[in-house]
């Protein structure tokens, strides 16, 4: 999709969200309740667009009383829509019709003929006034765009709901540019993909986009597996998959304690944005009755009250012998001491740590602190790169989308991905416009260390730095910056991360106190 079309879609998405946002004031639903019905309407509009295309392809092959079955549509990446569930029919209903009841029946009819969507689509439309529903459908009706473009609109709406209304939005929505960078680096061309904290499914959707971009069919190339502990978010994930013409095995479970997919050594790719610095994980549930640590934690368990290295264990354990992982991690995990340092040492000594990318602040909706992207590659461990790690400092690469939010542009994503490709001795890509920058910094078309941007470090050098995986320790200071300035940034980032953690704990305590007071007053 060209840059101009993408820009037009972003503008269209903003217009649509503004209209929907104004309509929210005319309902008695909370924003988190309002989000799902609106997103389902966008999904329905997309489903019909895709349904019509597939129906036109199938129709010539069926004559007389013969009709395509729901399975015929599903095999071509479309959701089968019974007559009562089609957007065009709902839009043509008279103004006196009970649109809330009609939409509830439509969502029920879709679920009955598409098992992947059972229990996913909302049934709360009668909580919205008829006038609000009619206006929402009127706003969506004129859209005449390619089916995949609806995915961008759907994603924009999810991001806006996360940013504007949901304090914990980051737990279900990872900004698209972060996901795209992870996908660009792990290159999920073919195989089983797993996300044990899958939220709304962005990792899966962008993996499918990556496969399409390389002229393959996601349905035949990738298999999707996920875990999500929140039922509302799980429904959002399945809806997101449907919008993108995908299906997957998504289970409701808590990845700390449950293993519904029998993850050990199973997956070609693991991608995740787990909750940062989470405390109070019940460690007694992570060991067997005889006190042996669960096999999902092969590096061992940390002794500190922080789950970062519990997640890192899971990601590593889930990979097959040639599997790759890419995940978001709090900066503090790269330098943490004590038992976490020992676990990090064990991970580095496996040879599976492939690449570490530092990302600047304000890339997420609900936290301002910078993060680090970790990439593992078990297949690398026995090769020539086995005792080396590539460090990339991408903190200076971003576009300021709004005053408080930054993104990676497509050329940033391609550029960082190309640095990793050179490190892996792979062919670079230049469709997104990174060619000139690559020529400037890598003039002979092969990898080289670039001060302030990237550097290859040996295991012995990492050991000398107390097993740190912080890119700032290794890549040096970019031209125009002073060492003192960089050191100050590192200290400030650590303080900011600590403050974010304290703020999260304070919010939890405040909610608990409010609940306790409410229970006392109602007693």
From TrEMBL:
Keyword Methyltransferase: yes
Domain N6 adenine-specific DNA methyltransferase N-terminal: 12-137
SUPFAM superfamilies to which the protein is assigned, alphabetical: S-adenosyl-L-methionine-dependent methyltransferases
Catalytic activity of the protein: a 2'-deoxyadenosine in DNA + S-adenosyl-L-methionine = an N(6)-methyl-2'-deoxyadenosine in DNA + S-adenosyl-L-homocysteine + H(+)
Keyword Transferase: yes
Domain DNA methylase adenine-specific: 147-477
InterPro entries: D12N6_MeTrfase_N, DNA_methylase_A-5, SAM-dependent_MTases_sf, T1MK-like_N_sf, Type-I_RE_MTase_Subunit
GO molecular function, one term: site-specific DNA-methyltransferase (adenine-specific) activity
Coiled coil segments of this chain: 492-519
Keyword terms, alphabetized: Coiled coil, Methyltransferase, Restriction system, S-adenosyl-L-methionine, Transferase
Gene Ontology terms: biological process: DNA restriction-modification system; methylation
Family label: Belongs to the N(4)/N(6)-methyltransferase family.
Protein name: site-specific DNA-methyltransferase (adenine-specific)
Organism field: Mesorhizobium delmotii
């Amino acid at each position: 999709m060209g840059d101009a079309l993408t820009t037009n879609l972003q503008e269209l998405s903003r217009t649509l969200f503004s209209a929907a946002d104004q309509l929210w004031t005319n309902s008695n639903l909370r924003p988190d309740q309002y989000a799902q019905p609106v997103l389902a309407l966008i999904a329905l509009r997309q489903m019909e667009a895709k349904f019509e295309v597939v129906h036109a392809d199938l129709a010539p092959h069926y004559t007389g009383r013969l009709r395509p079955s729901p399975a015929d549509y599903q095999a071509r990446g479309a959701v089968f829509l019974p007559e009562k569930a089609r957007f065009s029919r709902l839009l043509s209903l008279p103004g006196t019709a009970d649109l809330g009841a009609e939409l509830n029946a439509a969502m029920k009819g879709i679920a009955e003929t598409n098992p992947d969507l059972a229990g996913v689509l909302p049934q709360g439309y009668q909580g919205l006034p008829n006038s609000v529903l009619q206006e929402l459908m009127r706003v969506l009706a004129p859209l005449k765009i390619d089916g995949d473009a609806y995915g961008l609109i759907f994603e924009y709406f999810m991001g806006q709901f996360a940013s504007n209304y949901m304090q914990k939005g980051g737990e279900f929505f990872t900004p698209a540019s972060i996901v795209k960078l992870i996908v660009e680096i792990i290159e999920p061309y073919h195989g089983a993909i797993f996300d044990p904290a899958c939220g709304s499914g962005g990792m899966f959707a962008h993996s499918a986009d990556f496969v399409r971009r390389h002229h393959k069919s996601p349905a035949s190339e990738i298999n999707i597996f996920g875990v999500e502990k929140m039922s509302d978010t799980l429904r959002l994930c399945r809806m997101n998959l449907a919008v993108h013409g995908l299906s997957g095995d998504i289970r409701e479970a808590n990845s700390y304690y449950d293993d519904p997919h029998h993850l050990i050594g199973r997956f070609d790719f693991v991608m995740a944005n787990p909750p940062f610095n989470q405390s109070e994980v019940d460690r007694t549930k992570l060991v067997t009755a005889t006190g042996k640590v669960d096999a999902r934690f092969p590096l061992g368990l940390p002794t500190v009250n922080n789950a970062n290295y519990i997640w890192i264990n899971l990601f590593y354990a889930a990979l097959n012998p040639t599997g790759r992982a890419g995940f978001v991690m709090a900066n503090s995990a790269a330098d943490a001491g004590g038992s976490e340092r020992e676990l990090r040492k064990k991970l580095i000594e496996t040879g599976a740590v492939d690449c570490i990318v530092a990302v600047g602040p304000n890339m997420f909706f609900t936290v301002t602190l910078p993060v680090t992207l970790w990439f593992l590659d078990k297949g690398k461990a026995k090769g020539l790169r086995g005792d080396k790690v590539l460090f990339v400092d991408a903190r200076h690469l971003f576009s300021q989308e709004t005053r408080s939010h930054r993104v990676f542009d497509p050329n940033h994503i391609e550029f960082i991905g190309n640095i990793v490709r050179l490190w892996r001795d792979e062919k670079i890509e230049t469709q997104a416009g990174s060619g000139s920058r690559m020529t400037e910094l890598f003039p002979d078309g092969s990898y080289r260390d670039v001060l302030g941007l990237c550097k290859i470090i040996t295991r012995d050098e990492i050991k000398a730095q107390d097993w740190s995986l912080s890119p700032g320790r290794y890549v040096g200071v970019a031209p125009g910056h002073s060492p003192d300035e960089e050191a100050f940034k590192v200290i400030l980032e650590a303080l900011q991360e600590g403050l974010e953690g304290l703020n999260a704990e304070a919010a939890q305590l405040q909610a608990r106190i409010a609940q306790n007071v409410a229970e006392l007053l109602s007693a």
